[in-house]
Amino acid sequence: MAVAVGVLVVALLIVVGALGGYSFKSGAPTEGAAPTADVVGGFGRAAATLGFEVVVPHDVPADWHPNSFSLNNPAIGATGAPVVRGGWLTADGSFITLLESSATGPVLVAQEVGTALDNRGQVEAAGSTWNIYPGQRAEQVWVRTSAGITFLITGSAKPADFQALAQAVS
């Protein structure tokens, strides 16, 4: 019986070796490249899908990595207000997200942040006044409405990055 177990162990070692070995690491994800999304192109195509004018961000800092894009379209079964969302990783690895919607500011904040509205003041950015709300986790939310479009910026990025994204949709 000991010989049979020995043969099985040797066979197992040969198979594991042939398949590239085995790692005893914890199974935690390893660092790799962040996903990439066509954020600017997505904003450019969103108006045809959502039925409201969408502002395409321009001159986003070149060292930001576009990594997420999505649409929330009630016309095809989604719940809530129509929204286009695009996100970037900033140069320091923080994230920032731009949302545009035909919903009012309070409706969009309630839908996206999921907390009671608690206006924390205002900030001037790119020649416009943005209302500030607390976001999820330790994030903040900037919101403004212009010509029937509500813009919402959120994320863990620095205020200078919020200013840059506000400028990109001014």
Describe it:
By secondary structure, the protein is of the alpha+beta class. The chain is 28% helix and 28% strand. A seven-stranded antiparallel beta sheet has the order 1-2-3-7-6-5-4, with helices on both faces. It is globular. The termini are far apart. About 9% of the residues have low confidence.
Could you write a compact summary of the structure shown?
The protein is of the alpha+beta class and 170 residues long. It is built from 4 helices and 7 strands.
Task: Set out the fold topology.
Elements: H1 2-18, H2 39-50, E1 65-72, E2 83-89, E3 95-101, H3 105-113, E4 122-125, E5 128-134, E6 140-146, E7 149-155, H4 159-168
Antiparallel strand pairs: 1-2, 2-3, 3-7, 4-5, 5-6, 6-7
Helix content: 25-40%
Q: How do the helices and strands follow one another from N- to C-terminus?
A: HHEEEHEEEEH
Q: Structural class of the secondary structure composition?
A: alpha+beta
Per the principal axes of the C-alpha atoms, what is the gross shape? globular
Task: Please supply descriptive tags for the structure shown above.
single chain, 170 residues, alpha+beta, 4 helices
